[in-house]
Amino acid sequence: MSLDESQKHFDLFRDCLSGPLVQRSAVDSAKTNQKRRSKGRKNSIKPVQHEVEVNDSGPGDAEDLAEFVDYVASEIFESFPAKLRSLSYSAVHNDSRLAEKFNDPIPPATLEQILTTVPPSVAESLEAYGLLESQADLPKFLTSILQEYINAATAPPPIWSTTRTSACEICERDWIPLSYHHLIPKQVHAKAIKRGWHEEWQLNSVAWLCRACHSFVHRIASNEELAKEYWTVERLMAREDVIAWAKWVGRVRWKARPTWTLDGHPPMPHANKRFKSGPRQGLGKTE
Hints:
single chain; two-stranded antiparallel sheet; 13 helices; 45% helix
């Protein structure tokens, strides 16, 4: 597993862990204001004020809490078996035994195997900060977090039509019509499977691009190059020419449509108007 993939898995687990820890760090309390005003009825009903107080025994402020969550997440995540740290939809899709091991709910044997490797310092730290009543509560605390992490890591890819964005994923213009770009071009799907570039479930991944950016992507690389090297928006945006293009085309905005003349004719275009051309584009095969 690459460093980027490892970091993504850690970030996912830390996110699953942070919710319960942040929630336990804030204590909901309802207080009744017992001060009586000098005016008004003696037995008048006083409003109840609901306040949220930070747990004084826990990390002192937001920065401290963030560092504490990061520390606990690192301690736990690094103790996981390698297959749990790299768990994915592809992994369980191609390995029925792995899918059974990390099922929902987590089998007791799997849960025990995972929890026994967690360093004792985790339970000690959580108890010391008042986030656990007892170190013996750690298994119960972590079970739902582990399940959430496993479910998120093994979730199937979304149906492409549900991934539609409000703006072009390259130039970020949000007022222009979008089209979907097959990140793995359909013309090379069979080759991508045969040569092991991608798995079948990845083939319908799309990016939502404006027409200008869509055309630009197909000008800078062949279908094979797109499938092998640039099959995510992040990979495309790592190219300097794409960054330069996005910066330039993002400033191209249409003006309001001009009003036609009283005799029913469109206004004369500014034939002599000059404007700056975009960045030079790399040479590549078009679709």
